[in-house]
Automatic annotation (TrEMBL):
<feature type="domain" description="Flavoprotein">
    <location>
        <begin position="8"/>
        <end position="138"/>
    </location>
</feature>
<dbReference type="InterPro" id="IPR036551">
    <property type="entry name" value="Flavin_trans-like"/>
</dbReference>
<dbReference type="InterPro" id="IPR003382">
    <property type="entry name" value="Flavoprotein"/>
</dbReference>
<dbReference type="Pfam" id="PF02441">
    <property type="entry name" value="Flavoprotein"/>
</dbReference>
<protein>
    <submittedName>
        <fullName>Flavoprotein</fullName>
    </submittedName>
</protein>
Length: 195
């Protein structure tokens, strides 16, 4: 039986510390998970990178390959970019692909790969005019962006607060980061594409 491949991309935001449990949850749902990180997220998770590679069975990527190097991951059946920060989301929407995960996510749009994004931003960033433009740009390109007030996804949190269960000593935790909902949406998109 061929497993469905999920490229899980993460930016440096507190929910990234939950990534091992998220990988296990995805694997229990039948996904073959490949983990890609922004350079800052890789730095945050540096002590865990070898263990995460063992968990996924694939190298953890946070930089582009050199030209001519063979592809080390199977092709994606779906992409989940979560958490995606203000910086990564805007770069993605604007096509600024200096980081590997943003470049791979941008390419996924062009390849028609089902793609889901779950921003993790504070309310000050969310009020910046570029943020809503970027969300709308990605949505118009076919990306399911789980974000907003109510049932659309996580709402922005106030500066100084930490969303979800991630680390953040001395900061108030607010809300729960919707990992399960994100995996459900990815699974539904892949299933719909196969029917």
């Amino acid at each position: 039986m061929t497993r469905t491949t999920l490229h899980l991309f993460c930016s440096a935001a507190p929910p990234v510390f939950d990534v091992a449990q998220v990988i296990e949850q995805a694997q229990a749902g039948g996904w073959d998970v490949c983990l890609g990180l922004t350079p800052d997220a890789a730095r945050w998770l540096e002590p865990s990178l070898d263990g995460l590679a063992v968990l996924t069975g694939h190298p953890v990527r946070f930089a582009y390959d050199r030209p001519g190097e063979p592809e080390i991951w199977p092709s994606a059946d779906a992409v989940l970019f979560a958490p995606v920060t203000f910086n990564s989301l805007n770069a993605w929407a604007l096509g600024l692909t200096s980081s590997f995960v943003v470049g791979a996510a941008a390419e996924a749009i062009g390849r028609g790969v089902p793609t889901v994004a779950v921003p993790c931003v504070n309310a000050a960033f969310a009020r910046h005019p570029q943020f809503e433009r970027s969300v709308e740009t990605l949505r118009s390109a076919g990306v399911s962006v789980l974000y907003g007030y109510g049932e659309d996804g996580p709402a922005p949190h106030e500066p100084g607060q930490v969303q979800g269960n991630g680390q953040g000593q001395g900061r108030e935790r607010v809300g729960v980061y919707p990992w399960g909902a994100a995996l459900d949406v990815v699974g539904a998109q892949v299933a719909a594409g196969r029917s």
